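Notes from hallway chat w/ T.B., transcribed later so I don't forget. T.B. wanted the structure written out for a chain they're using in a teaching module, and asked if we could keep both sequence and C-alpha cells in one place. Agreed to drop them here.
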Amino acid sequence: MSGVPRGKLRPAFRRWRAGRPFWGGLLLALGGAEILLTLRASLDVVLHVGMQGLAGYLLPAVMLLCGVLILFNPAQRLFYSIIGVLVSLGSWLTSNLGGFFVGLLLGVVGSCLAFGWLPDQEPRVSRRRRRKQARAARAAQTRGGTGSGGTDAESGAALASG
C-alpha cells in the first residue's frame, strides 16, 4: 500500500476518527448517496413526487458534500450540519420523498450527530466501570474506616444508605 505497516494503520485510523464527528459525517454522506442512487433507480421503483430536475440532483449532492466536509474539516461542523439538516429535509420535496425516507433519516440523524459532537470532551466512563470504581472506593473506605471509633453496624448502615 503506502509503506505503512498493517499493524500501525488501524491505530492511526482510530486517532483520525476520534478527532472528528465521524459517524455524523458518514451518515450524512450515506444519506446523500442513497438519495442520488434512488433518483437513478429503475422505472419500476421510481416514484416521482415533488419537484424534479436540477433540485432533485442538487440537494443530495450538497448532502454528500456536507458529509465529506464534516469528515475532513471538523472545525466547521456546525455550519455544515445545519446546511445538511436543511437540505435533508428539503430532499423530501425534491427527491422521491427523500430517497423513500431512508436518505432523509440518514441525513437528519447524521447532521444531528455532527452538530452535537464536542471535540474536547473526555470519553464517557461506562456505567459498569463507574460501579466498579464505587465498589472499590467503598471497600477501601470500610477497610480504613472501621478503626475510627464507630461500630460495625453504624458503618454498615452508612454504606447501605450511601
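Follow-up for T.B.: Confidence is low (pLDDT under 50) at residues 155-162. Might be a good example for the class.
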